[in-house]
Amino acid sequence: MNARQIGTFRGIPVRLHWGAVAVAAVLGLLVADGVLPQLVPGQADAAYLIAGVIAGAALLVSIFIHEASHAVVARRHGVDVSSITLWFLGGVAHLEDEAPNPRAEAQIAGAGPASSLAIAVVVAAWGLAVSSVGLSLLAVTLYWVSGLNVILAVFNLLPGAPLDGGRLLHAWLWKRHGDRSRATVGAARAGRGVGLLVAAFGLFEVLTGNLGGLWTAMIGWFLYGAAGQEARSGRLSAVLSGRKIADVMAPIPPMIANWTSLRDLLGSQSDHERIVGVDFGGTVTLVSSRAEIARAAARAVAGKQTPERLRDLPLPEPVEVDIAEPASAILRHPGRPIVVTQDSQPVGIVTSSDVERIVAVHHLATDEVAA
Ligand SMILES: [Zn+2]
Fold this sequence. Notes:
By secondary structure, the chain is α/β, with parallel strands linked by helices. The chain has helices at 18-39, 45-76, 102-133, 136-156, 164-177, 180-207, 213-240, 245-248, 262-267, 290-302, 352-370; strands at residues 3-9, 12-17, 81-87, 90-95, 250-251, 255-257, 274-278, 284-289, 319-322, 338-342, 345-350.
């Protein structure tokens, strides 16, 4: 997500993706051009436009307050929040870790919809107060903003991960069975169902002539994919539970300079499939495999770039994890290679192929037991 940081909230970076601004602009325009002239006819064009701008801005502010509420409650439960991002499908508060217990998870998840409902009530009351004085354009705009927040709350309460309702379901399953991984798989399965239903509803809207359904269908499709991701991480966390990162890491291969020429690297034969690159200061900047490096180089060339050195390749940046951490620390950094450190010195690595290997071995072992 290519989002720009626009400020901080209690020290948490707040990022805004252009897609969120585009959606707010389109929605504001719809309000100014379609909704308001129909509901409150006979006003000046400028008045509709101002009301539309207010409605669009209110969408962004509403989503922000929703996410900030998750963040505040998460922190209260000792869960760090790395950022809040607004993008075209809504907002995300990125939690650094999972909730410590079902109760905390339910409170963190519930805070968002609760705040959206609270905004809806306050803004509707404000609309009522305004309409008693007779300013109907402003009143209707306020009602619209109130309705928007009701939709935000209700949609987010759909019972499938990664939506808030899915997290509530997860907390409930976790409390009921006492097994977090099993709850994750259950909530993710519900999320796939919810995603498919939302996508189907969107397509139905498109077929009946409402093009806005395309957006709904896209949200559904995104939810379906995100739920699949949740299910994978649930299965993985079951495999990793009770293990240390030291149990799953691979030994660190001889490190090479990240300014090594790609031609030299890929042209030479080597016993080492894994590649660990370091910069001038000795910091590990790259953990990858020869196959992955070859693929990234081919992609760059196809994209009309001419990468010369290892460091020119757009590969995911490695993250450092201390050797004393549990293996589940891997789950906090999806898609990123891991450098395991001891006293700040690199001693091992965990790449996506290591994770695949661990899962495969686990399934081989459990299938044997089943047979
Ligand atoms: Zn939420």
